[in-house]
Amino acid sequence: MASVTFQYDSLRASKARLGWHLRHAVVWLDVLAWLLVLGGITLIVVMAWSLGWLVIGLAALPYMVSTWYRSDLRNLPPGRDVSIDSLLAG
């Protein structure tokens, strides 16, 4: 019988914990990204301020986090070794 280990600092365990914490925040990250884009467009078109481009660029940060959650963290596949962290879900 093989011994079962737990590696708290493994990459998969870290991703599972982060995915667990982000599961409800993803909707708010998408809303924030859209609000930043709309605010940036408003600054560019209505106010004629070039600061709007910076605001639109800042919208990429919450969008990247929500996309990472949907593509990698939400459906994290189990690992292939016999450690507890490769089998547990977030």
Describe what you observe in this structure.
- The chain is mainly alpha-helical.
- The protein contains 4 helices and no strands.
- It has helices spanning 11-22, 25-45, 51-58, 60-73.
- Helix 2 (25-45) runs antiparallel to helix 3 (51-58) and helix 2 (25-45) runs antiparallel to helix 4.
- The protein is rod-shaped and about 65 Å long.
- The model has no long low-confidence stretch (mean pLDDT 85).
Average pLDDT level: 85
Supply Rg.
Answer: 19 Å
Going by helix content, strand content and strand pairing, the class is mainly alpha
Quaternary state reads: single chain
Low-confidence stretches: none
Helix content: 55-70%
Main sheet summary: none
Beta fraction: under 5%
Topology as H/E string?
Answer: HHHH
Total strands: the figure is 0
Span of the ends, CA to CA: 26 Å
Please work out how many helical segments DSSP would assign: 4
Shape: rod-shaped
